[in-house]
Amino acid sequence: SAVISQKPSRDICQRGTSLTIQCQVDSQVTMMFWYRQQPGQSLTLIATANQGSEATYESGFVIDKFPISRPNLTFSTLTVSNMSPEDSSIYLCSVEIWTDMNTEAFFGQGTRLTVV
Amino acid sequence: AQKVTQAQTEISVVEKEDVTLDCVYETRDTTYYLFWYKQPPSGELVFLIRRNSFDEQNEISGRYSWNFQKSTSSFNFTITASQVVDSAVYFCALSEGLFSGGYNKLIFGAGTRLAVHP
Asked: Kindly report the CA angle at B59 between B80 and B54, in degrees rounded to 5?
């Protein structure tokens, strides 16, 4: 299994500011994923982050708004830039881990962001 | 294109009732994974099960059971003798293919909110 730590767990931010969310994994992983869950909604993938390369963004998400860093195999950050109330969501990081010849997706506990 | 449909938005049951959560998926790939996750009010995602496309065996884990039917593209989840602690939002998810030996991104359904009343 994997232990994923996300910081902060929650924050209230002023519109126009930026927030950087950290994701730390207790083992080395190739791929890390960032998801957004808007209030009462399902999870939507923002981007996939591989170490040593640019993140791959999903349709509707751009690097200027959600820059991602992946400096090593255990850590990633997601920044929510120039925030507006519409960015109020839970942001989750996820990793894939091989266990018993199968792969499993683990999630951090999420960062609950409120923009006022 | 990939798609996961959870038609039941909310389900309300009384404790000890059995309840089935439906999940229908669409994919063009022959290799894929299906997942169920539980999201309690605290917000974290709790992994329940993963099933790959080549394994149609149903699975039972305590009060939980899953019925995977490729013929109808469904992966339904049943809770037997429901308990108040089962109250949560349940998500079904699909991942196509294999990427660098693992899975690709997850496509989530809209989720089903289950309320179990005493």
From this structure: 145
| B43: nearest CB among A35, A58, A110 | A110
Residue A53 above 70 pLDDT?
Answer: yes
Distance from CA of B33 to the nearest CA of A (A): 9
Q: List pLDDT tens digits, range A76-87.
A: 999 999 999 999
Report the residue from A33, A104, A110 with minimal CB separation from B50. Answer: A104
Contact: B47, A106; criterion CB under 8 Å: yes
Q: Is there a cis peptide before residue B40, judged by omega within 30 degrees of 0?
A: no
Buried b (16+ CB within 10 A) or exposed e, A24-63: ebeeebebbbbbbbeeeebbebbbbbbbeeebebeeebee
In this predicted model, what pLDDT tens digit does every residue of B75-110 receive, in sequence order?
Answer: 999 999 999 999 999 999 998 765 444 557 889 999
